[in-house]
Amino acid sequence: MKLLHTADWHIGKQLNEFDLLDVQQDAFKQIEAIAAAEQVDGIIIAGDLYDRAIPSTAAVKAFDQMLQQLNITDKYPIYAISGNHDGATRLNFAREWMKQNDLHLNTKVEEAFTDNVVVGDVQIFMLPFFDPQDARMYYQISIDSNEMRTIEQAMTRVVADLEQQFEPGKRHILVTHFNVQGTDNENYELTSETTSTVGGLNTVPARLFKNFDYVALGHLHLRQASPTRTVRYSGSPVKFNTKEAKNEKGVYIIDIPTTGEIGITWKTITPSKDLIVLRGDFEKLIDRDFYSEQPKPGEAFYSIQLTSRPAGKNIRKQLEDIYGDIVELEYHIQGDETQAATEQLAQRVAKTKSPEEIIGDFYNEMMDPAQLTEQQQKWVEAALIDIRKDSEA
Length: 393
Ligand SMILES: [Mn+2]
Hints:
CATH superfamily of the largest domain: Metallo-dependent phosphatases
Number of helices: 13
InterPro entries: Calcineurin-like_PHP, DNA_Repair-Maintenance_Comp, Metallo-depent_PP-like, Mre11_N, SbcD, SbcD_C
Protein name: Nuclease SbcCD subunit D
Keywords: DNA recombination, DNA replication, Endonuclease, Exonuclease, Hydrolase, Nuclease
Largest sheet: 6 strands, mixed
Family: Belongs to the SbcD family.
Strand order of the largest sheet: 6-5-4-1-14-15
Number of domains: 3
CATH architecture of the largest domain: 4-Layer Sandwich
Structural class: alpha/beta
Strand content: 15-25%
Bound molecules: manganese (II) ion
Distance between the termini: 30 Å
CATH class of the largest domain: Alpha Beta
Radius of gyration: 23 Å
CATH topology of the largest domain: Purple Acid Phosphatase, chain A, domain 2
Subunit structure: Heterodimer of SbcC and SbcD.
C-alpha cells in the first residue's frame, strides 16, 4: 500500500498582511500531481487543515474544493485529523456522510479508537491533536486529580489503548499532530512557531510510538524536525515564516509492504511564489547589479534585513519599488546589539523555564514573596492551554 503524507496546510494563512491562498492552491495542485504520478492508495493530512478555528469563507471554500478534488474527482481515500489550529467541533460536521466516501476526518480523542480504518493489511489510526484536559475528560479523571497533567502522561495511556486495538498481522500506521521529540531531532533547532516550550511540558517522546510501523506527524513545519526514521514530519507544503525560507517543502510517499522495511520517499514542491530573505546594507540592496539577480516584483515575497540604517525617508517605499512584496523589513545593525541581546536572554529564559514557572517567579517577585496557590496554578495552566492552542505551529 502506498500513501501520501502531508500536513499543516493552514489554509487561509497570511504572511503578515499578504494572502497565501494562491500559493497554497498551487502547492495543492502539485500534491495532486505527485499523488497521481505515484499512484497512491490514499492521502494522509496530519492536522492544521485550516489556519484558525473559525476560518474565512474564502478559506472554507478553497479547502472544500481541494477535498472534493482529491476525494470525489480523483477518488482517493483521505485520512485526516484536526490539529491545534483547527476548530475540532466545527470540523466534526458531516463526518458520517464523508466516511461513506472514504473521507475520514477525526477531531476527537475517542474517534481514534472508534474510527480506525483497515485497508488490506494496513490498519490506520487517526489521533487528532488534544490537550491533557481533553484526555482527562475522556477518561473521566477528576479535575483535582494529578493524573494526566502532561501530554506525555496522557499519550502513554492513549497509545496503550490504541495498541489494544491492533489487529494482528497488520501494519499499523498512526496519523497525529504533536511536538514529538526523538533521537534524530534532539539537536535540531526547531523553526516552527513553537519556540518557548520545546523539550518542555508539551512534548511527546517518540519511543511511545515504537509499536507503530509508521507515524505520520503534523505540527512542526519542517521535515528536518522528524524525531526518527519512521516517526516523521512531512512539514507544511508552503513556507509560512522567514525561518523556513531556506528549506525546501514537499510531501512523503510511504510505501508499506506486507512485511519488511517501510519505504519513505521525499517529493519536493516548488513554490509558485517563493519567500526570500535578503540581508545587506541599503546601498547593496538598491544596487541594480544585486537586485537584477533576484526574482522580479510580484514573483517572490521578500524578508529584508538591513545591516545599515540609511539616512533619508521612505526606505520601505524605495525597497518596495524594487522588490514588490516585502513581508518583513528589519534592521540588523552591528554595535546596536542591546536589543538583540535582550531578545536572546528572553529566549534563553523561555527555553530553560516553562511558562508556568515564569509566571510563578513573577508572582513571587511581585507579591513579596508569595507562592501561587494550587487553585491559582490551575487557572494559569488552563489559560496557558488556551493560549497554546492558538499560538502553536
Ligand atoms: Mn501547524
